[in-house]
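#lab-general

N.A. 3:47 PM
ok so I finally got the sequence cleaned up, no stray characters, all 402 residues accounted for. can someone with queue access submit it? mine expired

B.Y. 3:52 PM
send it over

N.A. 3:53 PM
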Amino acid sequence: MLNESKKQVLFSEFTPGFGISLALEKSKKDIIDIVIESKLRGRGGAGFPTGYKWKSSANAKKTPKYVVCNADEGEPGTFKDRILLSEHPEKLFEGMAICGYAIGSNHGIVYLRGEYRYLLKPLLKVLERLRKTHYLGKNILNSNFEFDIEIYLGSGAYICGEETALIESLEGQRGEARNKPPFPTEEGYLGKPTVVNNVETFSYIPYIINKGAEWFKEMGTEKSKGSKLFSISGDVKYPGVYELPMGSTVKEILELVGARDTKAVQVGGASGVCISKKEFDKPLAFESLPPGGSIIVFDQSRDMLKVLKNFMEFFVEESCGQCTPCREGNFRLLEAVEKLERGECSINYLKTLRDLAETMKFTSKCGLGQTSPNAFLSIINNFKGEILARPKKPAENNSKAG
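B.Y. 4:20 PM
back already:
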């Protein structure tokens, strides 16, 4: 069973300032070393080691430097960051300030999902309160450190969840991924060193600084330390946001949320993978099933081809169209799903589509095209019998009666 005693971090007691006050007593190098030692990895899905990202930006020569929070929570089935933004924003803002101190930045930006516009005024009120209590602004807690945060509203583009497309949008450009290298830690916003982390990642920072790297590493697996927020929805009795130790198995989570008669689970959002019952004993961790934050549960009543069609329609709609593998590849995969619906897809054609999906993963420019084939491959592989058993639809008779 899940270890209830260690799973609450982000939803535990929080005293504003308890992280930044300790951080200001340490050197910038010490702060980065603590984050590296904690083995915190980005909670947006990619899982890049947070401390090394900060170190790269801290070592960059250009100035000024920027701290950017990716609050563009556009992955279908994901709503954990919305809870943090609406109920625990002080943790996020304090984590950003600590990052600013560590890398030598005075300027933070929250890139807020356009659909979360209703959170803008409450967030601005929290920022103003933090300035008045000297946790933000000039001379934070009577120190020489200055750091402030502004909020930028996105325009509802899924691609802007990718960090370089987000930066393009911040600069007033069309949201499209940049070529890497150079990486944002060296040349990011306005060509300056920039750290981009998501809401959940920044929110862990005050706890890690306050309680230490070893405390954080008590939870999780060897390669995936700490706890993780999961947005759980679908055919479950108790949907919602759960904070669980990294390494929790799908089976344990299904029991926790009251799932019954489960056929499939989509882990890691639409760009993750769809698993069948034979994989429910696997853990959610960077070395196993993707712990991106979204878990969508499907019971035995669900048609997996319809589920797949829904995902592929989403990716066709959200592709920015910049690179051919993503733009054309997702369209072809959707076209194939429609053929499967009509019972017109042969085994040989299916093999060709698998090859196309693998090519997309290796040749697409950004994470959208690299991960969008995951749903297609996993559903086709895990539910091939159900999908190929569909009867061929009879051709329409267009002849007129004589």
